[in-house]
Amino acid sequence: MPPHTQQSLSGFIASKPVLSFTLTGDARFYARIGQQHYQREKDGSFTRINTTFHDLVQYRRAAHESYSKFRVSDWFLAEGYVKTYTDADGTERSEFIAKKLGHDAARTNYAVIRDQDDGTG
User: Fold this and answer.
1) How far apart are CA 113 and CA 41, in angstroms?
2) 78 contacts 67 by C-beta, under 8 angstroms
3) Which of 33, 40, 80, 81 is the most exposed place for a label (fewest CB within 10 A)?
4) Could you give the 3-state DSSP secondary structure of residue 87?
5) How does pLDDT run along the chain (121 residues), one tens digit per residue?
6) Closest CA to 95 of 27, 22, 29
7) What residues contact residue 82 under an 8 Å CB cut-off, 6+ apart?
8) Eight-state DSSP code of residue 107
9) Are the CB atoms for 22 and 28 separated by under 8 Å?
């Protein structure tokens, strides 16, 4: 059986994260995120060209966890999908719905705290 895959997104938290609640009472994490883009040059080097900004949303228990862990400028990796919708004024918009969200280990210094059980049974 092949591995289950979803869309992924990486970037940095560009706005102060917000925790709110849907009409049904589900927690909703929201942050504006940035993605830096680069252009490969003929000599093999890379030149940073622009940064784009997008909406990232996460729901329920994961929203609480992300709200407690993420701050402006944190680098992250996310798994989920893009949702496109039309807002009240008729503008088409999109947001990344994160099912999983974690810090980017290549750009973040952190400590892992594990349960006493080392997993060996």
Assistant:
1) 42
2) no
3) 40
4) coil
5) 999 999 999 999 999 999 999 999 999 999 999 999 999 999 999 999 999 999 999 999 999 999 999 999 999 999 999 999 999 999 999 999 999 999 999 999 988 888 876 666 5
6) 29
7) 7, 94, 95, 96, 97
8) T
9) yes
The CA distance from 93 to 56, in Å, is: 12
Report which residue type is found at 31: A
Q: How many Å apart are CA 58 and CA 31, to the nearest integer?
A: 9
pTM equals 0.86
Q: Which residue has the tokens 């400590």?
A: 111
Cα–Cα separations (whole angstroms), residue 23 to 20, 27, 59: 10, 10, 12
CA 19 vs CA 30, 52, 54, 82, 85: distances in Å: 7, 23, 17, 20, 21
C-alpha of 95 from chain center: 10
